[in-house]
Amino acid sequence: MQIHSIAKKRPALTGVMSALLVLMSAGYWQHSHAEDARPQTAASRPVASGGSAFPDVASIAAMLTPTVVNISVSGTHKVSTGGNDAGAGEGGPNDPSGSPESDDMREFLRHFQQRFGGLPPELNMPMRGEGSGVIVRADGVILTNAHVVNDADEVVVKLNDRREFRAKVLGSDKLTDIAVLKIEADHLPVAALAPTQSLHAGEWVVAIGSPFGFESTVTAGVVSATKRSLPGNGLVSFIQTDAAINPGNSGGPLINLRGEVVGINSQIYSRTGGYQGLSFAIPIEVAQRVEQQIIKSGKVRHARLGVGIQEVDQSLAEAFKLDKPAGALIESVDPGGAADRAGIEIGDVVLAVNGQAIDVSGDLPSLVGLAQPGDALAIDLWRHGARMTVHARLDSVKVPAPHTEPAASPAAGGRFGMALGRCSLKSCAQRASPAAC
Fold first, then answer.
1. Contact (Cβ atoms closer than 8 angstroms) between residue 312 and residue 325
2. Which of 255-278 are b and which e, b meaning 16 or more Cβ less than 10 Å from the residue's Cβ?
3. Which fold has domain 192-298+406-422?
4. Dihedral (C-alpha) 193, 195, 196, 198: value to the nearest 10 degrees?
5. DSSP code of 159?
6. Catalytic residue check, 198
7. Which end of the chain is more exposed for a tag (fewer CB within 10 A), N or C?
8. What are phi and psi of 168, to 5 degrees?
9. Are 94 and 104 in contact (CB under 8 A)?
10. Do residues 244 and 217 lie in contact, with contact meaning Cβ atoms separated by under 8 Å?
11. Residue 147 falls in the annotated catalytic set
12. Catalytic residue among 173, 177, 348, 395
């Protein structure tokens, strides 16, 4: 592995720019008129260092790093080969085209075929991986991503003080990508958690994790957007940030400037498999709901309304005579499902659920997914130019069958020509060749 320097020479500053920098560093670059001053509450005032306008990332890192753990996993993973076809593993449904893992997998399958004269339909591949996690209870309860511990026979947690523990997976939920671990330890440092309702685009956030195995790595950025829907993740409205997240960061915390965890880092959009400025975290409310259910019963249940939805744009808002583009347009209704029983029809626009406004279509599945099967929801609809309310009693989501794709493969259907990838770090131990696949 090579680490390249990114330092470069800077052009000399002009006299004017130098003067401005001197004024800024001395604290003079600020509004001098009383009418321009805006009061800030303690909650909204950014944490700063030395009187500057920049966040005090060092203090946040010192406070939270002891609560962040490195997670190492090992086990086996079933990989579909496509049988004895010479082109097996290439271009098929389990081939993450363009990723380093896909190239390694194809090379391994070719080597295996040459040595043994063919390929079985499936191979049990040894798997190793790394991720991150955050301690949320002093008795050793840890939150991480479900995809970090999938297929793991052994999970080892390494604390910031270098102590290592074999962890038990109390439970995991693939639909939200949250898992709960437990280690036998007491009096551990615990991260403070904070709801994300007051989180806004432009706020500074900090991420801590183990990208590429480099433990306790601290990165910072801003919240790029909230309530971000991603393909194949209907139950979660993600926090989008530009904090650098890379493979190995999965399961680590996203932290606000008060040193509170607001999300669990989970996914990135990338053409290369590495950070390209688009990182996504699961809101901490979702993680807490999953943790509570797993601690209580060892499993997670999600509710289902039974509708297909789409975004309401300006043209649809005008066609439906809405005041503004908002809500979720119903484009399909499952026969006999909760929505059908409640009288919801194709062409209705959902405006609110239990009094909570649906601003974008992704708000609806997120609210329903956090409810429990059997819960009753009051749903405000827009139908034929008038507002009405129906009541739906929710069904249960059926958990999909496990995937058989290669470890760390990106999800299909990435937008903007990029692939959506989960930021864990996994590899296969190749038996027929000394190289890793």
1. yes
2. bbbebbbbbbbbbbbbeebbbeeb
3. Thrombin, subunit H (2.40.10)
4. -120
5. -
6. no
7. N
8. -105, 135
9. no
10. no
11. yes
12. 177
CATH class of 68-187: mainly beta
- The answer to whether 222 and 155 have CB atoms below 8 angstroms apart is no
C-alpha triplet 399, 305, 292: angle, nearest 5°: 55
- Hey, is 390 helix, strand or coil? strand
**Strand 260-270 and strand 192-193: pairing?**
parallel
Q: Do domains 192-298+406-422 and 303-396 have the same CATH topology?
A: no
Quick: pLDDT tens for 191-208: 999 999 889 999 999 999
What is the C-alpha to C-alpha distance for residues 290 and 172, in angstroms, rounded to an integer?
8
What contacts 387, CB < 8 A, 6 or more positions away?
Answer: 351, 380, 381
What are the tokens at 158? Answer: 């390494």
User: What is the number of alpha carbons within 13 Å of residue 122 lying toward its C-beta?
Assistant: 10
Mean pLDDT of the chain: 78
Please, what is the end-to-end C-alpha distance for the chain in angstroms?
16
Instruction: Please tell me the distance from the alpha carbon of residue 198 to that of residue 175, in angstroms, as a whole number.
Output: 25
Separation CA 370–CA 51 (nearest Å): 41
Catalytic one among 99, 224, 250, 361? 250
Sorted by where each begins, the domain ranges of the chain are 68-187, 192-298+406-422, 303-396
Instruction: Find the angle CA(292)-CA(261)-CA(57) to the nearest 5 degrees.
Output: 165
Q: What is the pLDDT of residues 80-108, one digit of tens each?
A: 766 544 333 333 333 333 445 566 667 77
Digit-coded pLDDT (tens) for 112-134: 777 877 777 777 777 888 999 99
CATH class, range 303-396: mainly beta
Selecting among 77, 102, 132, 147, the annotated active-site residue is: 147
Q: What's the pTM?
A: 0.73
